[in-house]
Structure formats: C-alpha cells, structure tokens
Amino acid sequence: MVIAMASGDGSRDEILYLAAGLADLVTEGLRGATRRLPGLSEVRQELRARGELAVRRSGPGSEAHLEVLARHVVRRSQDG
Amino acid sequence: MADLRVRVDRALTEFVETEIGELLALDEELAPVAEQTRVSIAGGKRVRPAFCYWGWRASGQPDTDAMVRAAAALELVHAAAIVHDDIIDRSRLRRGRTTAHESLGDGLAIVIGDLLMAWAGQLFHASGLPRTFLARALPVWATMGRELVAGECLEILRTGGAHDLARSLAIVRLKTGSYTVERPLQIGAVLGGADPVTLRALAAYARPLGEAFQLRDDLWGVFGDPGRTGKSALDDLTGRKPTALLALTLSRAAASDCRRLGDLLDGPVTPADAAEIRDIMRRSGAPAEVRRMIDDRAATARAALHESRLAPEAAAALTRLISEATADD
Fold this sequence. Notes:
The complex is a heterodimer of chains A (about 80) and B (about 325).
Chain A: H1 2-8, H2 10-33, H3 37-57, H4 61-79
Chain B: H1 2-26, H2 31-41, H3 47-58, H4 65-89, E1 93-94, E2 97-98, H5 100-104, H6 106-125, H7 131-158, H8 165-191, H9 196-223, H10 226-229, H11 235-238, H12 244-252, H13 255-266, H14 271-284, H15 286-307, H16 312-326
Antiparallel strand pairs in B: 1-2
Helix pairs in contact in B: 1-2, 1-4, 3-4, 3-8, 3-16, 4-6, 4-8, 7-8, 8-9, 8-12, 9-15, 12-14, 12-15, 13-14, 15-16
C-alpha cells in the first residue's frame, strides 16, 4: 500500500507534504513569535555567533570600517 | 601548533572540571570516577583537534575560541575510544599511566568510556559555534562514530584469524585513520562551509595520512620504546592484532620462521618471546617495508596539499601535521 502510493502518487504527495509543511511552519512561526524571551535569546545567540565570525573573517581592518560606518550613522542622525 | 595544543588543553580542562563538578554534586562517592576521567584525557598529542581546527581554517574561517572548543571534542571521542580499546586489549598502561579498567575494574571503565563519549557530543554542541554550522557537521560526526565502531568490531572479529595485508589496511582505515585524520579534518571543513573543491583536496590529503598514522602506531606497538610510547610493547603481540606488520611478516618470512611465529603467538607472549618475534619480523624485512609504506603515504599527502589551493597558513599547518603524524620520533 505504502509502496503503491509512493510510486504512483509520489510527486502529488511531495507537493502536498511541502505545502502542509509550509503551512505548519507559518503557524509554528506565529506561535513562536508570541512566545517569551528564551526563543529570542537563542536567536540573539545565534546571530551573535555568526556575527563574530563574519567580523573576524573580514580581517582586522573591518572593525575600523565598522567604526567609520557607525560614526557616519551617528553624524547623520545628529545632523537630522 | 604548540599554542593550539595549549588552547585545546585549556578548553578540555575547563569543560571537564565543570562536568566533574556536576557529577560530584550528584554524589561525592563518584570521586574515583571523576579522577579517572582526568587521567583519561591527560597527556595526549591532541592531533585530532589539530586536524579539525585546520579543516575549519582551510575552509576560510577565522580563528575563534568556539572552534577550539568544538575541535577539543574530538579528543574526548579519542579518550572514550581508548578506554574501551584498553579493556578489549587488556592493556595495563596508556600514556605511561594505569588504564581505567586496571584502576577501577571493567564495569566502571565501560561507563567511563560512555561518559567521555557523551561529553564529546556535549562539548561540540556547546562550543558556541552557530547552530546552523553545527547542524552541517552532524552527518560526518555520525559517519565517524559508525566507522570507529565498525573498525573496532572488525579487528575483534579478525583477531587470530588469517592474516591478509589488504584486510588489515581496511581495518586500519576504519578503526584509526577515519577518526584520527579524515573525519576530524572533514568535520572542521564542513563546519566552516568548505566548497567541494576544498573538501576533495582535504580528503586526498587525509586518507593516505590516516593510514600512515596507524601504520606507525603498529610499528611503535611492537618496536617502540615503552618509556616513550607509554604503552607496553607486548600488548599488540599478546592481542594477536591483525596488523599490516604481522601480515607482511607472514607473507615474507621463511617457512620455518612463519611456523615459529605461529607457535610464539599461540600462547601468552613473554618478554623473551617478544624479542624473538621482533627478530623474525626484522629478518623478514617487514618493519622496513612498513616504514616505506608510511613514507609513501606521507609523500602522497604532501603532493595532495601541493596540488590544492588552500590558504597558505592552513597548508603550512597541514604540512607540519604530516611530520607529526608520521615521523619516527
């Protein structure tokens, strides 16, 4: 039975499962967004870990570059 | 390189002492178990973390303490494997210290091995690397575990059986080469998101080097100075391990030497027997042939690096690791 479904309606099942998965992800995402901080702190941790690597990857000059950018943003906000 | 070893040691100590604190908080009576875990991780050369770390750097990722922690987890896999390996081989000494089962008995040693393996997974996952990076490496981690167990099982299944060089090398590849060089390097590279070209270059380097590492281990197991290897020079012989060295000896020695070798390995091996076995091996030319096989594999690994386009710093470190894994001193 399972084999017959897999071989006969494989592609239809694939689309159905993908659509259901997407719907489930959206529902879960909405639920997740309304949850308390632990989820957010994990997201923050993940972003921080990736960010640290990204900054290090672009070499020692990058911090100065980021600082120039930051100063630029501050100056613009003061001008505005 | 020495600096990386110090950082790995520090990461291991920090992690293990925290875990020991948690363990002893459960019950103070666990103190001997805690002490034995310290002994089991002490004094290694930390080659597996080094391969893992440089796989990461070869992928273009920067130096970071989080990666040193993830790489240090490989040393816990090794510590777990040797605790169990020593039970199987009935080895009494490791790195010059009493083995876990010799100190605490088989039962506790088995669970100490399990504990170290569980710690390895935990240190890897709590290393501080992004979770999406860690998730990429999970399939390789699983492959490493499967190969390690398969190699150990095949060695047991083949112990005392017919000696065959090709089969011996296949066991070597699984049992030690895989979790010493190839998989640690691949785990580091996959963590770092290496491209397929880099992964292929690293594999071409790692496979021969892993074999060379184990062949040297076989040679040291019989001809090494126990004061330097920290292991008894009788263990490999007493265990009648299906090593390439033994297979080569049997294929090259004169018929009378082969018969004598069979008799000597049939019973418990005394130090005098071991000396005679070494003489037979030398007469057959097998140790020199194994040394040649090691050098050939080191040359293949070096050529693979030469043809690759790895970052100079990673290529230089991986070149140094060839000497560390294959040199005779």
